[in-house]
């Protein structure tokens, strides 16, 4: 009886690990999505951003109205981010020569992941989803390291 119980526990462990675990390739793909997001701006490659983002991606941050001093939520969408990747760093003067881009995978569960990107002047928290066998960025919440800049 004891061996049967151990065998059942072992089977449940295997099944749970198989269903919910990410593969090494998933981890690499998730990291690449985060890198494509930031490197698209570094390298002025909008196609790199398009590869990373779902068409309905939303990027949010808090911002401060300079006249009233009130904070509010700002949103940016995929199309504006593609344009940003195409135009923001065309003079190659918006980032250091070796920009900081540390990707930390916080959690992965089946087809969803939470990621933290530490860049030069800001932090991005990302939600990445696997749809049709492809990991894509769907949500970004970011702020400057110095929140007074916002």
List keywords for this structure.
six-stranded mixed sheet; 37% helix; 150 residues; 4 helices; alpha+beta
What is the topology?
Blueprint: H1 2-20, H2 24-42, H3 46-52, E1 53-64, E2 71-77, H4 78-87, E3 101-109, E4 112-119, E5 122-131, E6 134-144
Parallel strand pairs: 1-6
Antiparallel strand pairs: 1-2, 3-4, 4-5, 5-6
Strand order of the largest sheet: 2-1-6-5-4-3
Q: Please, what is the average pLDDT?
A: 90
User: What's the alpha carbon Rg, rounded to whole Å?
Assistant: 19 Å
Instruction: List low-confidence stretches.
Output: none
* Sheet having the most strands: 6 strands, mixed
Q: How many helices in DSSP terms?
A: 4
**What letter string, H or E per element, gives the SSE order?**
HHHEEHEEEE
Task: Describe it.
- With 150 residues, this protein is an alpha+beta fold.
- It contains four helices and six strands.
- It has a six-stranded mixed beta sheet with strand order 2-1-6-5-4-3.
- It is globular and about 75 Å long.
- The N and C termini lie far apart (64 Å).
- The model has no long low-confidence stretch (mean pLDDT 90).
């Amino acid at each position: 009886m004891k061996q049967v119980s151990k065998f059942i526990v072992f089977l449940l462990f295997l099944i749970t690990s198989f269903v919910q675990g990410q593969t090494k390739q998933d981890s690499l793909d998730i990291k690449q999505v985060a890198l494509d997001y930031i490197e698209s701006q570094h390298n002025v490659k909008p196609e790199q951003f398009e590869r990373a983002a779902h068409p309905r991606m939303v990027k949010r941050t808090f911002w401060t109205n300079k006249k009233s001093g009130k904070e509010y939520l700002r949103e940016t969408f995929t199309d504006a981010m593609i344009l940003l990747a195409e135009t923001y760093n065309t003079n190659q003067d918006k980032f250091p020569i070796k920009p900081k881009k540390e990707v930390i995978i916080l959690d992965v569960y089946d087809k969803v992941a939470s990621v933290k990107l530490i860049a030069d002047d800001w932090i991005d928290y990302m939600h990445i989803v696997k749809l049709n066998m492809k990991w894509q960025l769907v949500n970004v919440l970011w702020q400057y390291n110095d929140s007074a800049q916002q």
